[in-house]
Amino acid sequence: MVTVLLPQDLRDLTQGERTVEVQARNLDELVTALHEQFPGMQVRLQSGYGAVVDGTLHDFHATVTLDDSSEVRIVAAISGG
Amino acid sequence: MTGNPPPHSSNRAAVVGTRPIRPDGADKVTGRAQFGADVAWQGMLIGKVLHSPHAHARIVSIDVSKAEAIAGVRGVITGADLPPIASIPELNASGVVNLRNLASNVMARDKVLYHGHAVAAVAADSAAIAEAALDAIEVVYEPLPHVLDALDAMAPDAPILHDELRTEGVYPVEDRPSNVASRKVFEAGDADAAMAQADVVVEGTFSTQAVHQAYIEPHAVAAKITEDGLATMWVTTQGPFLVRDLSAAVLGMTPGDLRVIPSEIGGGFGGKTTIYAEPLAVLLARRTGRPVKFVMTREEVFRATGPAPAAHIEARIGANRDGTIVAATGRLVYEAGAFPGSPVGVAALSMFICYDIPNVFVEGFDVVVNKPKVTAYRAPGAPISVFASESLIDELARKLNLDPVEFRLANAVVEGDTAASGMTFEAIGLVASLEAARDSDHYRSDIDHAPAPGVRRGRGVASGFWRNGGLQSTVTINIGSDGKALLVSGSPDIGGSRASLAMMAADELGVDLSQVRPILGDTQTVGYNDSTGGSRVTFATGMAAVGAARDLVQQFRERAAKVWEVDVADVAWRDGRAVATDGSDRAVTLAELAYDARKTGGPFSASHSVLATGQGPSFATHICDVEVDEELGAVKVLRYLTIQDAGRAIHPSYVEGQMQGAAAQGIGWALNEEYRWREDGTLDNASFLDYRIPVASDLPMIDTHIVEVANPNHPYGVRGVGESGIVPPLAAVANAIRDAIDTRPYDLPISPPRLRQLIEQREA
Lengths: 81, 764
Prior knowledge:
The structure holds two protein chains of two kinds. Chain A is α+β, with helices and mostly antiparallel strands.
């Protein structure tokens, strides 16, 4: 299971949960898995957030692979302007 | 081929790092270059848009019958002619753009949300007839209360712009209409506790106003429908693929039915990364059966396109007596304009990122107000938040009696440090930029703080960060029978990217730059490219160019091996020639291979696509000297030095141009520029006569110093250079004024009336 650390501003969707675990092999799957667990997450994540994996900030691409030891930190990172 | 090319391994760098004449230069200085408004097609009609006279009003009715009856009027459209908002998907394919809000901004439906919101559009035989038609359209409005300031819009009794809007990012969830679209938070450690323990704490409340990207060329689009039903657009834009995809979504078309040809672009700076009249031009071309061209006036650009946001910021920074910063907090309130989507998230990310601070809390709010929807402007959001943070860094250095550059150096992030966002830095150039500042002639020079009665001089320093972008790019290179390489990219050239792409390709191919001709393709002649923005093109499209060139080199080696009947491993590529490494002394040039291609296996061509990752962030440090006439409140910039990490400057003159332009725009932002709205919500200064940008006589020579800390993830070490240079100037200017007049400016622009007010407060 991938550990996902969520910022305060996504906890309205997780009913206050700060850390969740999901099954995902890459960041694209992670979005789908989070959305299944927390409806509304897909649109939110894809409109202004990125994911920090091993210290690098990524967009939610399938090219960024994850394994069970992965820790993903979600951050508001993309300019909406 | 796809994928990020590995680092440059050749010894040859004969072109990269030099300063050749720009390939588009002659056309631009002789007036031959074709910009957005320059296209003229047979039978072309003139399009014009009717804009709302109100800041907020319900549209009761629109009667276009009198307009349609005017001779020479060929078509009139309103929001009713566009697909219903509910039928439009919420997000675009990349998930970044809310298409429903975008469509509502392109043309109002039931409500107008700002003075300038499009209400109807016409196509006519001439501009005069189109104007007359606009006058003849009868719109009945029911004016509604409006709100212009973000703090006012957050008040419980504020007029609500969107009844369905709920604040995202607040827990427990608040299920009531709000103008606060979202809340974003960055946190690390325990900022409140660390702040309480800090030896010295500085704080301030800051404000900035909406500013214009001030591209010289207004928005323009021409559209026509060809016999096969394909819609073709000629557009001045930073993103032809973006214009295609967004326009198609708003019109309910498939992107493949739209061809977008990018014109030369007379500046964009982020402001040409969305759509306005583009779908209207297609719709009217379809309706009239004739080409239609829209060219905005400058007044329309001001009223109906997106500026950078106004903002309110509260910030605190705490440090120990030894000069170690221990905590920082920020509360950012950014105006989004009429629809959600200010850059407050990335502004929050950028605010304190220059420093290794263990305890950070930054909270940002995206707030809708009755103003045009904001759009990107160089390093969107960051100059504003960094104006606050770098002002307080300066103040903290003063309180600690430390040199402002040495104080920054002592706290600067270095390779291996982790920011509050969780990002861990690879090789970065902040320290190098600060050391260059410390060692510069400018910083080491003396400054006379009181050269004459009533005249004060001061010096300010500030640093800044920008993350830069990667995203998708494609480049195709075709080799002609004369051996020349035609390099086709899909990234509009707003900062010299044609030259940079060609230079990297020339070094990869081992040929003189004159043998590479870079051109800009359109959405039907080159593979997909994300927009020119985020300082990504020389980095990402550069990777695609390098990849295509390397693919060609492999083809050349294989062709020579085939002709020589040797293994390809026995053929090397050196200085534009295939060379046999089997001791036979055989060699063949690129031109010879190209000439014989028809006999040896056909033409040489290669395309390379990337989803580029590994963009290195860019840091900058600026030094500004100002002179203040205390009686007039006037500020003159005496000397300015911009230092920036380019990773590797492919074409140093272009890099310097980016640095100088960003500094000039930032100085304008700091000193004079602001959109001014009247109390009734109408814009008061929609022209360059009343909106004051710096002109050449306002500025000294902007001195430049390029730092090169190579980005390990790019074949030539490139980092984006277009944006980090506009992050420090707001604070650098403000810090210089603070140094001059012994009073800190907290509100931008620091225009003469505001400066006089500050001086009066000081004297009181």
